[in-house]
Amino acid sequence: YREAWDKDKTQISIPSDTPVMLQSKVNALNISNKHYQKAWDEAKAKSYDIRADAIPIKHAKASRDIASEYKYKETHEKQKGHYIGCRTAQEDPKLSWAARAMALQNDRMYRKAYHDSKAQVHIPVDALSVQAAKECQTLVSDVDYRQYLHQWTCLPDQNDVIHAKKAYDLQSDNVYKSDLEWLRGVGWLTEGSVDVVKAKKAQEILNDRLYRTRPDEVKFTSITDAPDVVQAKINALQLSDVR
């Protein structure tokens, strides 16, 4: 693929003073690392003498010491094992705060005062708060709430019993529907009902066969000498391709 180009590129000659060649030389100088370090290499060849107490040297040493991880941790490594922080745990604010938080979260210490004093409290049996608590317990007790009353014995001819029976009969669904029991199981034909008759009438109204009569079913005799028939014959003769 590149054989023709490899042969032609050795035979092309471009003048060295063309703008493209000049621009390429300038670009080569700008990109060249050797040209970039030329002044530094020449200065090194001439040798130089920098004093140890020069400001740039001191600045470089200080920057190196600051950036050095060893120098950064040197003071900490020397003081490790020689500094405790506080003489006692009570003097350390963090340890005191942790102990206080642990004591507040401790359930045993939270209930210690209550367990110590609950056996020493004496409440009179007839105290107002105790009586109120007993009455509330009686009210909310499920046993007393569901206690069945004794069985009453009433005479069947009492007015209230007769009135209750009549009220039950009025509210009874069986008594309310008792007049329809004789219809249960009785057969019934839908022919002649209102809905069936209405559907038939609607079908007759929507029936296209009854609404429209076909032309072939209508009996009629056309007059041959009528004006419209004569005109139709003349038009047919004029439009006939055979004629």
From TrEMBL:
Protein name: NEBU protein
InterPro entries: NEBU/NEBL, Nebulin-like, Nebulin_repeat
GO molecular function terms noted in the UniProt entry: actin filament binding
Lineage: Eukaryota, Metazoa, Chordata, Craniata, Vertebrata
Origin superkingdom: Eukaryota
Keyword field: Actin-binding, Repeat
Gene Ontology biological process: cardiac muscle thin filament assembly
Gene source species: Thinocorus orbignyianus
GO cellular component terms, A-Z: Z disc
Pfam families in the record: Nebulin (PF00880)
SMART domains in the cross-refs: NEBU
